[in-house]
Amino acid sequence: EREPDGTSVAVLVRSCRQQDCSDGEWMSAPSTPTRIAERYLQLQVEMTSDGVTEPELRGLHLDTR
Question: Is the pTM higher than 0.90?
Fold first, then answer.
């Protein structure tokens, strides 16, 4: 990710048992390998600009088994 001054990038994740993830809670994505025992997984990226400069997410890596 690229975050110039005044901008931000946040990656959120939630795991859930229900298909619509109504039973999951959003939390910051872990930066180290983490086992997720639930059936479903959702990711969300929140990017905030300062009105002039934009942040950039160049990649997102997710391993599954």
Answer: no
